[in-house]
Write a structure and sequence with these properties.
The protein is built from eight helices and eight strands. By secondary structure, the protein is of the alpha/beta class.
Length: 244
């Protein structure tokens, strides 16, 4: 029987919130970076590693700051800086390799399914996740985890179908509309301070910042009264959800 209290839904991010992809992304990024450098180096006048690496990182950072996650677009921008251009079909193949590698090394956190199962008996559950450029590579990775997907009453993939990516408030509002709830009737759980916590706050939703104990990461040093948890099981200790 669904609870009648103020909070009626728990919304989640996907990557690094429900599943651990940290090592997967590091491996995929390294391999893609090495492939790109080798291709550029093979051409006459190709760059040295010392020139390539900071430029690659800088361009990737600028794209991510604008919430543009197309890997081929990033790679072509790097090529352009060295007056080179690679075959778009080749870059699309590299992108497929990239996402295959990420997917094959992504796994749910140990507590994810038990926590979702328990929460779903009391709350509506939903997902609000950025696409990260996965559309051309077979869709969002959530589809690979039916044991997780089945618990969500609403799913919004931001950055697709004209929907602004997080931290824009639109995907959060669309999710609430699908659930027929107000912002004060939901909490949002995510790992990224700027995208998840900031986005939820801007949409009027109470955020919960997950700094998962299994993730090796330099977390932003910020002062805030936003609840911080280190495992999804800690949700059950939050005053807003303690009645579960």
């Amino acid at each position: 029987m669904r609870k009648s209290g103020q909070i009626k839904a728990v919304l989640f991010d996907f990557g690094q919130t429900l599943v651990d992809s940290a090592d997967a992304f590091r491996m995929a990024e390294k391999d893609a970076k090495d492939r790109l450098f080798a291709a550029l180096k093979a051409e006459a006048g190709g760059p040295d590693w010392e020139a390539f690496l900071p430029l690659y990182r800088g361009i990737r950072k600028k794209f991510h700051q604008k919430f543009e996650f197309s890997r081929p677009a990033i790679w072509q921008a790097v090529c352009a800086r060295f007056d080179q251009q690679l075959d778009p079909d080749l870059l699309n193949q590299w992108e497929q390799l990239y996402w295959n590698q990420v997917s094959s090394h992504t796994h749910p956190f140990p507590e994810t399914v038990p926590v979702l199962e328990k929460l779903s008996s009391q709350y509506d559950l939903a997902l609000v996740s950025n696409t990260q450029g996965q559309k051309k590579s077979g869709g969002h990775r959530l589809a690979l985890f039916p044991q997780i997907e089945k618990y969500f009453k609403a799913i919004v993939i931001a950055g697709e179908s004209g929907i602004h990516p997080k931290p824009h408030g639109e995907p959060f509002r669309l999710c609430l509309q699908q659930l027929n709830l107000t912002p004060h009737e939901a909490v949002f759980v995510g790992d990224d301070w700027r995208i998840d916590v900031g986005g939820a706050q801007d949409a009027g939703i109470q955020p919960v910042w997950l700094k998962h104990q299994l993730v090796k990461r330099n977390w932003p040093d910020v002062q805030s009264d936003v609840p911080v948890i280190t495992s999804l099981r800690d949700l059950f200790n939050l005053p807003l959800l303690k009645q579960v």
